[in-house]
C-alpha cells in the first residue's frame, strides 16, 4: 500500500510541472492525468479515498489546477485553438457559476466557522452571568496574520464589581501561562471572558476552554467521547472536497483566490488535528490520565464526576487547539495522572493558559506567569516559571517600595514647607507657591503605587491536649463494597498525635475509603479499628461544601450552627483570621468562591479543636497564600495529621512519612515525595510504552 501511495504522490507532484509545460501537450495527455479510469486502475475505490485524504494541500491544489488547465485547453481546441474572451452578458452560465461560487463559499464559511457558533454561545453565557468586558485598542501593532494576542484598555466586571480595569492582555503563541491570584479575585471569570472572545483574538486561533465535566451518557464510551470531539474532521474534509470540486469548475480568478484561501485554512486545521493517528492519540491520552483499556470502553454514565472530568480533559488535549484554557486541571486527578499531565503539558507548543495552585506543577510547565493584582485591578506579566516569578516579583517590589517611600517622603517635605512658609514673607510665599506647583506636577505625572502585599493568614488549630497511645489502630482490616472487588486485605496501620502521614496512590485504590473507615462511616468486613474513647477527629473532604448551609451567610451560620454560645466579636475574629472578613461575612455563602468557602470550613475545624486531622485533597480549592497558611498551621499543630493530596509542595512541607495505597495494602514508602515522583514518572513511561506496543 505504501508503494502505491508513493507512486500517487509522485504523480501528483508532476501536475504542477505539467501545468507549466502544457502548451505542447495534447488533450489525451491531460485526460490521462485527470481520468478517473486511470486512477481506478492504479488502486481500488477505498484505497483511492484513503489516498485522497493523505494528499498534501499543495498536491491537491496542483491536481485542481491541472484539471482546470485540461478544461481550458479542451475549450480552446473546440474553438479552433483560439483563446476565448468573456463578453459581458454573453455567458450567462458564467454569471450563474459566480453565483454558485458565492453560494457555496458562504455555505462553507458558515459551516466552517464552528468557532463563531461557539463564540455566540459563550457571549450569551457571559451576559447571563453578568460578566461585562470592554477594551480600547484592537490587536495593538501586531501583524494581521499573527497568532499573538495584544489588547489594551481591557476591563472586566462581574455583577458590577470591577475585576480588571484598564489593563493589557498580552499572550504570545508558543508560551505556557500560569494564571495566579487570590481566591475570589476573578481568575475564572477573566478566563471565561477570554474564551468567549469578548476581546479581539485572531481568527486563526481556535479556542478550547475546559471548565466542566463530560456529561453522564448511556450511549457513548470514554474513548468514543474523546473521538467524537473530532467531528470537526468530517466537516472539514467535506468542505475541502466541495472546494476542490468547485476550484476545478470555475475560471474566475477572484473566486479561485477566495477558494484557495479557504482551502489553506482547512488544510492547516486538518494538519493540526493529525487525523491519521487519531485513535492511537486518544487511547494514549486516556491511558495517561488513568483509564485502563477496559475503562476506555465503559459508558460515561458509569464514571463518577471526577472521572468524567478526566474525560473532558482528555477531549481538550486530543483536540490540540491553538489556544487551550484550563481551570484547575489537576483537581480530581491522582498523583500518577498529575505527573503524566505535567510532563504532557510541558511539551505544549501552542498557547496554554491555566489556573493551578500547585507550585511544583507550575514550575515544571510554565514559561510565564500572569498575576491578577486585586489591589490595582491589573494583569501583571512575569517571564519564567513560578520560582522565577517569586524572585522577580520580590526584587521588583523592593525597588517599587523604595521608589514609593522616596516619593512619599518628598511629598511630605513639600507639604510641610508649604504649610510653614505659605503665609510668611513675600519671598517665602513665592517659594511655597513654587513648591506647590512642583507638587502638582508630581501628582499629575502619577505617583508610584505601593506594592501589593499578599495576605499571610495566621491560621492555627488549637491544641486539644494529649491522649495515651494507641490513639488509633487499624488491625488486620479488610474491606470491600458489596458486589465489588475487595479494596483492602489484612491492613495494619496506626496513627498517634505525632503522626504526619501523606497517603498517595491511584484513584480507586481506596484512599478516601480508608478515611471513611477511620471515622466509622464504613465498617470493616474483617478486622478492627480501635480508637481512643476521647479521640476527637475533624475531617476536610473533597465535598467540603456539604459541611455548610450555602443559603446562609457565614456570620449567621456560625451564630446559629457552629458557635451559638459565643459572642459575635469572637465569631467575627475567627472568620477574619481565615480570610473571611468585612462584607464576605454578611454575604450568602453560595456567592463565595470555592476557596473562600474552604477557608470557612477550616475556621469550623479550628473551633472543633480536634486531636486528629484527616484532610482529603485540601489544596484543590485553595490559592497559593491559603496553601502556605495551611502548611504553616499544620506544622504548628500538636495533633496527628493524615493528608491525601497530589500537591507535592504541601506534602514535602508537612508529611514526615509517605504511605502508598495500592494492591489492597497500605505500605510505607522508603523515601520522600520527590523520590516518589521520579519513581512514578519512570513507571508511567514504562506502562505507556507497554500500552503503545500492545
From TrEMBL:
User: Matching PROSITE patterns, A to Z?
Assistant: ABC_TRANSPORTER_1, ABC_TRANSPORTER_2
List residues of the ABC transporter domain. 144-402, 472-688
Where in this protein does the record put region Disordered? 62-98
Q: From start to end residue, where is composition biased (Basic and acidic residues)?
A: 62-79, 87-98
**Record InterPro entries:** AAA+_ATPase, ABC_tran_Xtn, ABC_transporter-like_ATP-bd, ABC_transporter-like_CS, ABCF, P-loop_NTPase
GO MF terms, alphabetically ordered: ATP binding; ATP hydrolysis activity
Provide the alphabetized UniProt keywords.
ATP-binding, Coiled coil, Nucleotide-binding, Repeat
Pfam families on file: ABC_tran, ABC_tran_Xtn
Where would one find coiled-coil regions in this protein? 226-256
The protein's name: ABC transporter domain-containing protein
Amino acid at each position: 500500500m505504501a508503494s502505491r501511495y508513493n507512486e500517487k504522490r509522485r504523480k501528483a507532484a508532476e501536475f504542477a510541472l505539467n501545468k507549466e509545460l502544457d502548451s505542447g501537450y495534447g488533450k489525451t495527455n491531460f485526460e490521462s492525468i485527470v481520468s478517473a479510469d486511470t486512477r481506478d486502475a492504479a488502486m481500488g475505490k477505498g484505497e483511492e479515498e484513503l489516498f485522497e485524504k493523505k494528499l498534501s494541500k499543495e498536491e491537491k491544489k496542483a491536481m485542481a489546477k491541472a484539471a482546470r488547465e485540461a478544461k481550458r485547453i479542451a475549450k480552446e481546441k473546440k474553438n479552433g485553438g483560439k483563446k476565448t474572451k468573456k463578453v459581458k452578458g454573453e455567458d450567462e452560465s458564467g454569471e450563474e457559476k459566480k453565483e454558485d461560487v458565492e453560494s457555496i463559499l458562504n455555505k462553507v464559511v458558515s459551516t466552517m466557522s464552528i468557532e463563531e457558533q461557539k463564540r455566540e454561545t459563550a457571549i450569551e453565557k457571559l451576559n447571563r452571568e453578568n460578566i461585562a468586558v470592554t477594551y480600547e485598542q484592537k490587536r495593538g501593532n501586531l501583524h494581521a496574520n499573527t497568532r499573538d494576542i495584544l489588547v489594551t484598555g481591557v476591563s472586566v466586571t462581574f455583577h458590577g464589581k470591577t475585576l480588571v480595569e484598564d489593563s493589557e492582555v498580552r499572550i504570545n503563541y508558543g508560551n505556557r501561562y500560569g494564571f495566579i491570584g487570590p481566591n475570589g479575585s476573578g481568575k475564572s471569570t477573566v478566563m471565561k471572558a477570554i474564551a468567549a472572545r469578548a476581546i479581539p483574538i485572531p481568527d486563526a486561533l481556535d479556542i478550547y476552554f475546559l471548565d466542566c465535566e463530560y456529561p453522564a451518557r448511556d450511549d457513548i464510551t470514554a474513548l468514543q467521547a474523546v473521538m467524537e470531539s473530532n467531528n470537526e474532521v468530517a466537516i472539514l474534509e467535506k468542505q475541502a472536497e466541495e472546494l476542490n470540486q468547485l476550484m476545478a469548475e470555475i475560471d474566475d480568478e477572484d473566486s479561485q483566490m477566495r477558494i484557495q484561501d479557504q482551502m489553506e485554512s482547512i488544510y492547516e486545521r486538518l494538519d493540526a488535528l493529525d487525523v491519521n493517528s487519531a485513535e492511537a492519540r486518544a487511547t494514549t491520552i486516556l491511558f495517561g490520565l488513568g483509564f485502563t483499556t477496559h475503562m476506555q470502553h465503559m459508558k460515561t454514565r458509569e464514571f463518577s464526576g471526577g472521572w468524567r472530568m478526566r474525560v473532558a480533559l482528555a477531549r481538550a488535549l486530543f483536540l490540540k487547539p491553538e489556544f487551550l484554557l484550563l481551570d484547575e486541571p489537576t483537581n480530581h486527578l491522582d498523583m500518577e495522572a498529575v505527573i503524566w499531565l505535567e510532563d504532557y503539558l510541558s511539551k505544549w507548543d501552542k498557547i496554554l493558559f491555566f489556573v493551578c495552585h500547585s507550585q511544583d506543577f507550575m514550575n515544571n510547565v510554565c514559561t510565564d506567569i500572569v498575576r491578577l493584582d486585586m489591589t490595582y485591578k491589573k494583569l501583571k506579566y512575569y517571564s519564567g516559571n513560578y520560582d522565577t516569578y517569586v524572585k522577580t516579583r520580590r526584587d521588583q517590589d523592593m525597588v517599587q517600595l523604595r521608589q514609593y517611600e522616596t516619593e512619599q517622603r518628598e511629598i511630605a517635605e513639600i507639604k510641610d514647607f508649604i504649610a510653614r512658609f505659605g503665609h510668611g514673607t513675600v519671598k517665602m510665599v513665592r517659594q511655597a507657591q513654587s513648591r506647590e506647583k512642583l507638587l502638582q506636577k508630581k501628582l499629575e505625572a502619577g505617583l508610584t503605587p505601593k506594592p501589593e502585599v499578599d495576605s499571610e493568614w495566621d491560621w492555627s488549630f488549637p491544641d486539644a491536649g494529649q491522649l495515651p497511645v494507641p490513639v488509633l489502630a487499624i488491625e488486620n482490616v479488610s474491606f470491600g463494597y458489596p458486589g465489588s472487588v475487595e479494596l483492602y486485605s489484612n491492613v495494619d496501620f496506626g496513627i498517634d498525635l505525632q503522626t504526619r502521614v501523606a497517603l498517595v496512590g491511584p484513584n480507586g485504590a481506596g484512599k478516601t475509603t480508608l478515611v471513611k473507615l477511620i471515622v466509622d462511616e464504613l465498617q470493616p468486613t474483617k478486622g478492627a479499628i480501635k480508637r481512643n474513647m476521647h479521640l476527637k477527629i475533624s475531617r476536610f473532604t473533597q465535598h467540603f461544601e456539604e459541611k455548610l448551609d450555602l443559603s446562609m451567610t457565614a456570620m449567621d451560620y456560625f451564630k446559629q450552627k457552629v458557635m451559638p454560645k459565643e459572642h459575635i466579636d469572637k465569631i467575627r475574629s475567627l472568620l477574619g483570621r481565615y480570610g473571611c472578613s468585612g462584607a464576605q461575612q454578611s454575604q450568602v455563602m453560595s456567592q463565595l468562591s470555592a476557596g473562600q468557602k474552604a477557608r470557612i470550613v477550616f475556621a469550623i475545624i479550628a473551633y472543633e479543636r480536634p486531636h486528629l486531622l484527616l484532610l482529603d485533597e485540601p489544596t484543590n480549592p485553595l490559592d497559593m497564600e491559603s496553601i502556605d497558611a495551611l502548611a504553616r498551621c499544620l506544622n504548628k499543630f500538636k495533633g496527628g495529621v493524615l493528608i491525601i493530596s497530589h500537591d507535592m509542595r504541601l506534602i514535602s512541607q508537612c508529611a514526615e512519612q509517605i504511605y502508598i495505597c495500592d494492591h489492597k495494602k497500605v505500605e510505607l514508602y522508603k523515601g520522600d515525595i520527590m523520590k516518589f515522583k521520579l519513581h512514578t514518572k519512570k513507571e508511567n513511561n514504562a506502562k505507556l510504552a507497554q500500552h503503545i506496543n500492545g
